[in-house]
Write a structure and sequence with these properties.
By secondary structure, the chain is α/β, with parallel strands linked by helices. It is built from seven helices and four strands.
């Protein structure tokens, strides 16, 4: 019971550190992408890759699902993509160029000005995510960094 209480206390401390203004800005940026038919790309490594994949799924499917199955046929859909889900593409770029470029090279094929990139990294210093965010900014995209405390290099590049 003590471990559970410590865990819940830790979660509460993390929630208390969140800025409601920043959360609102993230929601506004995601909704702006939706309303303007822009794509949303999510990227990260390890557990953050799993989170990126989950974002792509939840925005792409979870926003149009109805209780009992199926989807709302006339509802506009989010254009959300996780760049962590295609193992063949990621390993090809990693093998032929560099692991640091696995997201940049995918973005070069897919991204358009005004799209939204969500980079996820606990340290905020994952080089492949940082490079992708720098590229995205250079071509006119909006960039959100989801990081641990401090933001790292990603915090320096991001819009939020």
């Amino acid at each position: 019971m003590e471990r559970i209480q410590k865990y819940l206390s830790h979660l509460q401390n993390v929630l208390d550190m969140l800025s409601l203004r920043d959360v609102r800005e993230v929601v506004d940026m995601v909704m702006s992408a939706y309303e303007n038919d822009k794509q949303i790309f999510a990227i990260g490594n390890g557990g953050s890759a799993s989170t990126a994949s989950h974002i792509g799924c939840d925005l792409g499917k979870g926003t149009i699902s109805v209780p009992g199955g199926g989807s709302v046929p006339a509802r506009k859909r989010f254009r959300a993509i996780s760049l962590t889900d295609n193992v063949a593409t990621m390993t090809a770029w990693s093998n032929d160029t560099s692991y640091d470029d696995i997201f940049v090279e995918q973005l070069k094929n897919l991204v358009n000005p005004g799209d939204l990139i969500i980079g996820i990294s606990v340290s905020g210093n994952s080089e492949n995510v940082v490079r992708a965010m720098q590229y995205a900014k250079a071509v006119g995209c909006y960039v959100i960094a989801w990081t641990g405390i401090g933001g790292g290099k990603m915090g320096e590049v991001s819009d939020l």
